[in-house]
Amino acid sequence: MNAAERHVPVMLERVVALLAPALAHPGAVLVDATLGLGGHSEAFLRQFPEARLIGLDRDPEALRLAGERLTPYQERITLVHAVYDELPRVLDDLDVPEIDGILFDLGVSSMQLDEAERGFAYAQDAPLDMRMDSTGPTTAADIVNTYSAADLARILYQYGEEKFARRIADRIVREREIEPFTTSARLSELVRNAIPQAARRTGGHPAKRTFQALRIEVNGELDVLRRALPAAIEALALHGRIVVMSYHSLEDRITKQTLAAGTKTDVPDDLPVIPAGHEPYLRLLTRGAERPTEEETAANPRAASARVRAAERVRTKGLVA
After folding, report:
1. Which has more pLDDT, 27 or 2?
2. Is residue 215 domain-shared with residue 227, that is, in the same domain?
3. Domain check: are 177 and 131 in the same one?
4. What is the CATH number of the domain that holds 145?
5. How far apart, in whole angstroms, are the C-alpha atoms of residue 42 and residue 11?
6. Which residues contact 305 (CB under 8 A, 6 or more apart)?
7. Are 77 and 70 in contact (CB under 8 A)?
8. Residue-number span of the structural domain to which 13 is assigned
9. In this predicted model, what pLDDT tens digit does every residue of 267-307 receive, in sequence order?
10. Which residues are annotated as a binding site?
């Protein structure tokens, strides 16, 4: 199965519409900060024949498959093995002073979920890995087998919003003394048994929140996002646009706060006149977080939790457009 068959881009039409005004001019530069299997990028390259794409991904296999998919556009693409908080270094290496658009499609990719051996899926038995970059140093097994009960409980509660975090953490610590955890099936079964039966009846698979929390910790996703969003905004040209698609409440909260900060002036509220260069530098393009349509969710269940926020840069170097 090729990349196009394996990957259905989420909210594709809306994402293209939000970025389109920034990409209509010749030589426009778009960064796909989370290239994945290249579905969104393919649509942009097709619609904007004079635009250039810089695609980033921490997963070497995703880069390979996306490269195959985007072969018809190879003269206009540059694919880089990098985490998206490395954007400033990537742009510097490529001698690109500013960009016109950037897309973040956060979370785990379809390919990573579908390949059982990557260990992301709680419903399939596989090595406890969960690294988005298979060359990374820390696996989910490392975390499960070495973190203290307190630290395990903290990440399960913070990143998974798991109400029974302490119960699960205590049971993990007890069971790993008997035998270290190596597979997803054993951990999934432990979590299911640790959660009271009444609580298992709703909310999907009992291990969903635990696996999500471990994945976020393995890949440092929230810390990376906190660094990446300000860097992306800083790289935007005047009238450049940023679109962020998140699938987790914490990702969405970080995005909301970062974009909202750019819409406010940085001088005291009681100042009668805002000095030049202190005006807001962003304009929000979405009212709150936009959601996929019911039709899209029915056709692509992985779209169900998607939230999209977008903004346009309206000031740079002290100037207001």
Report:
1. 27
2. no
3. yes
4. 1.10.150.170
5. 14
6. 247, 248
7. yes
8. 3-105+221-320
9. 666 666 666 666 889 999 999 999 999 999 998 888 889 99
10. 38-40, 57, 84, 105, 112
- What is the rounded end-to-end Cα distance, in angstroms, of the chain? 47
Please state, in angstroms and rounded to a whole number, the distance separating the CA atoms of residues 158 and 82. 26
* pLDDT of res. 198: 79
pLDDT per residue as tens digits for the range 32-64: 999 999 999 999 999 999 999 999 999 898 999
Domain termination site, one of 187, 219, 251: 219
**Joined tokens for residue 103:** 């897309």
Among residues 185, 219, 253, the one where a domain terminates is 219
Cα–Cα distance measured from residue 28 to residue 99, given in angstroms and rounded to the nearest whole number: 7
Pair of tokens at residue 289: 């977080």
DSSP category for residue 58 = S
R_g of the chain computed on alpha carbons: 21
How many residues can be counted in the chain?
321
Assess contact for 121 and 261: CB atoms under 8 A: no
Two tokens at 190?
């432990």
Residues 179 and 207 in one domain: yes
Pick from 317, 311, 318: nearest CA to 239: 311
Detail the residues annotated as belonging to a binding site for S-adenosyl-L-methionine.
38-40, 57, 84, 105, 112
Q: Give dist(CA 167, CA 171) in Å, integer.
A: 6
Instruction: Say how many domains are in the chain.
Output: 2
Both structure tokens of 166 = 């302490």
Indicate whether 202 belongs to any domain: yes
